Automatic annotation (TrEMBL):
The lineage of its organism: Bacteria, Bacillati, Bacillota, Clostridia, Eubacteriales. The keyword Membrane applies. Keywords: Membrane, Transmembrane, Transmembrane helix. This is MATE family efflux transporter. The chain crosses the membrane at residues 12-30, 36-57.
Length: 61
C-alpha cells in the first residue's frame, strides 16, 4: 500500500486507477469493443505517467 504525503503522488495514484477505468468504458462503446477494454490499460498508464512527469518537471523548477 502506497503512503503518499503530498498531493502529487496521491493524484498519480488516483489517475493510475481512474484513467484505465474511464478509458475502458469509453473504448468499449466503440467498434473496438473488448479490444478497447484491453487497450485502455496501457493507454491509461501512459497518460498517468505523462501527467506525473509533467507534475515533476513543474515542481522541479
Amino acid at each position: 500500500m502506497q503512503r503518499s504525503l503530498t498531493k502529487g503522488p496521491i493524484t498519480g495514484s488516483i489517475l493510475l486507477f481512474a484513467l484505465p477505468l474511464m478509458l475502458a468504458y469509453l473504448l468499449s462503446a466503440t467498434p473496438l469493443g473488448v479490444t478497447g477494454i484491453w487497450l485502455s490499460v496501457p493507454i491509461g498508464w501512459a497518460l498517468a505517467d505523462a501527467i506525473g512527469i509533467g507534475y515533476y518537471l513543474k515542481k522541479k523548477q
